[in-house]
Structure formats: C-alpha cells, structure tokens
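Handout, section 4.2: multi-component inputs.
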Amino acid sequence: MLENIFTTVLNMSITASIAAVLITFFRWIFGRRLPRIFSYTLWAIVFLRLFIPFSIPSMFSVFNLIPTPQTSMTQSQHYYETKGIILYSMNDGNTSVEITAADALSNNINSSLPLPVPEASAEPLQVLTFALSWIWLVGMAGLLLFSLFAYFHTRNKLKTAVLYKCGSLISQCSQKIKLKRKIKIFTSDWVQTPIVCGLIQPRIILPVVFERDLSESEIALIITHELVHIKRFDYLIKPLSVLALCIHWFNPIIWMSFILSQKDMEMSCDEKVISVFGHDIRSEYATSLIRLAVKQNRILNCGLLAFGESNIKSRIKGIMNFKKPGFWMGAVAIAFIIALGTMLMTNGQFDDPMKRNGKNVKSFLTVPAKQPTGIPTEPKNEFDDKNNNTYPAINGWTPIYTKIIKNNSAKEFSDEVFINSIEGWKATYSPGATHQQEMILYKTTDGGENWSEIANSNDSLPLETKTGITFLNSEIGWISTVTPQEGYIGLYKTIDGGAIWEYQNLNIPHDYRGCLFKTLPPVFFSQEDGVLLTIQSDLEEQLVFVTHDGGNKWVATDENTNNENIKWSFSIVGNGSLWEIIYKNTTWKSNNGYTWSQSE
Amino acid sequence: MERIKIFDAEYRFMNIIWEHSPVSSTELVRLASEELGWKKSTTYTVIRRLCERKAIKNENTMVSALIKREQVMRAETEEHIEKVYEGSLKLFFTTFLKKEKLSKDEIEELKKIVEQYEKEEYEC
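Output:
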C-alpha cells in the first residue's frame, strides 16, 4: 500500500521534473525579454504534475520522445488502461514495485536507478522499497508538521495585529487592479515584511514601523503588490506549493522549481504594480524595496506560508528593466506557452511500452483500448479433445488486464499471456502420441521481442492436450488441459514463474466424478479472487470453482450462488455459449472463457 | 517607578483602556473590534495577558488600568521572533527562506542600478 503510493509519487516527481527542467530552460532563454507572468504561468504545469497522478494522453506529448528500454523488467505490474487514461497499479505482496512505475513514463531515467533483476530474489529490493517508502513518509510528515506548526504559530501571533486605518487608500489601490473583494489591512510588530495571512479571508499585515517610516505613496505601492497576490489567489497557491514541496521533498529539482516559481510570482506582481501605477514609479518602487531590505534581514518567514519579499537584487533589476511587451512578442509568447503546456501536461500516447515496441506493434495495435461491450458470437464451443485446432484464434484481455493471445494458424499454434506490457509467457504446442501434446514454454521480459525457453515437455510440463495458460503474477501461473478421463480436472500450477509445474489437486464434488471435463485457464478479478471454469461434454451443467486466496484453494460453487462477491452463470446464446460472472457488482461476459469484457 | 514591557498591539489596546477606564469588558470588546479589528476571543486573551502582568485589573467585568502611560516601555519583539525560529528548524530552512541579508556594498550597488536606469531614461 505505502509502496504503491510512494511509487505514484515517484512517478509524478519524475514527470514534473522533466517539465521543470524544460521550463527552467525556457525561463533562461526568454526570462529577461518577457514579462515574468509568462514563466510564472508555466510553473502551473509543474504544479499540476506534482499533484495529479495521470493526465491526458496526446500525440504531442514530449513523453512520446522518450525511448523504450529493451532490458527493464517489471514484476507484477499491471497497466490498467481505461478510457485512454493510463493508470499504473502495482500489486502488493510478493512483488517489487520500486521504480517500475517510473519506467512506464520515462525509461531512460529508470536506467540510472537499480532495476529489479528477474532471477535474483526479490527480497533485498523489497526491503529497499519498503525502507525508502518509510523514509519518504517520515520526511514528509516532519515537513508537514513543521509547516503547520509554523503556520499556526504565526497566525496566533498575528491575531493581535491592529487594524490599519488608511482612509480610502485601500479602495484606491483595489480599484487600480480591479479587485472587488474588501480586504482589510493590519499592522503588527511581529512581522518585518508585509505579508498576506489567512486562507479564507486573507488580510494584509504590515510591519508596525511602516506607519512611521514610509510615506503614503510608498505604502500604496506595497499594498497594491499584496493586493495583486490576493487577486491572483497566490495566498492559496503558495501553501499548496509548500504542500507539494513536502510531498516531493526528496527531489532537488522540485526545490529549485519552488524557489524559481516564488521568484517569478513576486516579480510578476511587481510588474503588475508598475503597469497600473505607470512607468514613472519604478525608481520609487525600487527604492522602497531597497529600504525594506535594509530593515528586514531576519528570518521571519511566517512558516513558509506567508509572503516574504525575496530576491531583492533580481527584483530591482526586473523592476527597472520592465517594459510592456509588444503585441507580437506577447502573442508569440502565449502561443509558445500553449504549445509547451500541451507538450508537458499530456502523457505520451504510447506510454504503454508494449505498444511502442516496434516489432511487436502488429499484434497489439489491433486491440482497442477499451474492449467492446457487445459479445460477438462465435461458433459453438466444441468439446473435442482430439482436434484442438478447431479453436478460433483469440486475442483479448482478462478482467485484471492480463493479455491472452491464442495463435492458431498453419504457421503457429501457441498460447501467449502477458501480465503487463513487457512480461509474458508463450507456450508452443506440437502433436505427440495419442491424447498427448508436446509443449515448450518461453518467457519474455521485453514485451515479446526476445523469448527464452524456460521449460519443455521433458521437464514437469504436462503432456495432456493443453487448453491454455495464464499467469496471475510473475511467479504464479497455470496450465489447463483436457483429457478423456472421467472426473479429472486438468490443472497444473507453477509458483516459480514457470520452471516447475505440479498438478493441482481439486476437490471434485461426488456428483461430477463420472463426467469428462475440459478445464479452462483460471480467470482472476483481483490478485485474490478468481474462478476456474470447466466445460462438461454434455453442456448441461458446468462445474466452476472459486478462489479467494490467489488460487491456492478452489471451492466448487453452484451456478447463480453468491460466493463472497463472485456469482457465475452459463448459458447458450444462439450458436455460442455465454459465460457471465458478477464480481463485486460488475458483470463480466465471455463467450470463450478466455477473454472477458465488462458489461454495461 | 516600575516599568512594564508591552508590545505594540497591547499598547494600542491600553490606549483604549486609558481613554475609557473604567470600562466594561463587553464595551471593550466592541471598541477593540472597531478600533483594532480584533475578534472577541482575541480581546479576551489580551485582557487576560495584561491582567497577569498587572497592567490592568478586571473586577466584575469592569476593566481599569493599573499603570500609567509613562510606566510603559514598548518592547521590541525581535528577541521573541528569533527564539521561535531558532535551532534545527532554522538551520533546515535557512538556505532558501532567509531574507537576503544585504551588505552595505550591495545596497550601494542596488542604488546605483536604480540611478543608472533613471539616467538612461532621461537621456533617451
């Protein structure tokens, strides 16, 4: 659980960092020539990236440019693809989730991080992930607590701030920037710099010395600056930025972004003040900033959450340099921001490395992102163990988005199963003696580019006629078979990723012990809950088993009875058969028992 | 004559008391809200604090001053502020939150920048 959250955060951190680096580059090139409001706007991209774990896929996304790695390996990682939005979900339990989500987004970054090694024990990696997640959590909690403490402490101190009576000054300033809200100004000896305080009803608090030391025109400039902050809702953006910083505290790029965005925030406010008061006030404004800077050389920051004035030097230069941008310059900049925004806010269209994997594209691009809800009718499901070749080729998904491909052509007779975009198994069959079938099992860790043999019929693989294979995760998988033997359910299980297979003994109800069964590969709805379908030769009553522990224990369950969230039914529709399984209020349908679609 | 340290906000509140003393606390709440923009709870907190320091007394909700204007020494709050943000927390955040401490040279430099820009403007 914690590891999953951590991985998601890591993910967001990496994408946001890419955006941040590009924006910094933009700032560096155009910063001087364009008003700061442009670069300040751009930081919104990083801001959103830091909070939103996914975004809209687009062909314009910069993340399309990131090449797919050939060697990375994920363990039990599922890519859930729903309505074009790609979410990454990791299984907990016996899996290592560290960094693997990151590779879905930017694999070249991933290469600098330790990759899980398939054959090596997952243990040390799991420990590392666990430890890192906790370090992250503790760090975040510490920073949040400190921020909250500082915020409430300051707020408490500022309760006794005294109303500053300045006649119509405030309404004049508000009018200048077209701010409709009524804002009150207070003075306090607890602050050294003007700040905006309060989240719901922000108020401006000036240092008490201002009343004595500053002229009314200087105060007007300062108040206007703060009012601009209020008008732009900076008083909410800043605490949220601090929150993002607390969450992503481990990422130095985010710290840099925070500092730069604060600078842009202040400088764009300065620009607004100058543009409403007119060019002539620049030196007066700059001079009051310098005067303020002389007084305030202390660390009162109101616990991060209030406005301080910072970066005096660059602000002074910015103020004195400020020119209203020409129309064309502005237009070009706006177009540029929109383009950059589209590139950075959207995820790569082909984020799923499986789909981007050149050589494999053919077989995957044909699969729609969302399965069609209608069930196409297929020829009547034969029960014919002698001629397995009559099965149609199948290409589709199980309810937990395991990809199932059944190749059945003159060239190739095989089963493929992918538990994520890169990790999969393939079984090829060739005829053996009567009712026997030779089998070779291959594994891939690169989306089907390269296959390596992990077992064959000389090992523990069953010789019976195979009906399919499936895997629940990197370790656990099944081979289902059919053989003319009464009361026999052909089910073989592996718990080591496919090297060693053992017959899985099921408790067959007495009534069924004289029947012939065709067993289908188990179908899972979660890492725990699944069903095992068998088809009886007479097609009258089917025997179905249900598991709630990831396939260790299977219990025969009658049709239309609810077994802890799972209810199944079987019917003959027209020419074909129809399986219907209701899992946690979702109805899944299949006419072949291999691939499933969610019914509306 | 004993002198009592008082902060700016408290001093302004004392001003109201000196002007109206003796005054009922309800009336004081109203005056503080009007003059200082304080909430009721804030006013009561400050009354309690000043009572503890023996600057005022509060008998049967009638508040009156115990000290005279001349006895008051308006305190500088700097030391308090330093205290709160001291230690490790300060160290942790100093790097990016501290106010730029400008040296005299830097201030001169900034002033020159401003002057220079002004000059350029005139020449144009």
